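Form 7-S
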Amino acid sequence: MDLGGYSINNATLNRFFSLHYLLPFVIAVLAAYHMYILHKPGSSNPLGIKAHKLDKIPFYPYFIVKDLFGIVAILIPYSIFVFFYPEVLSHSDIT
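Output:
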């Protein structure tokens, strides 16, 4: 069994590329599964107090609206940065 060497060759690059390509899909599947198992029965509280079904806040529309507001609040400054000031992080010698 080859444990590798001191140089980066084709096998190393192929493995890193495969990991880099597949890892976002694995994370997306795990996030979707997490949302499913979290919001189907409902969230519990950390104190362990039994709550009646009427005391719970539904996920839709309250948490969806809150999450969408957070996403928009992040995407607007990000879009301004990307579309209007893309050269900010470029090399300082390039003018």
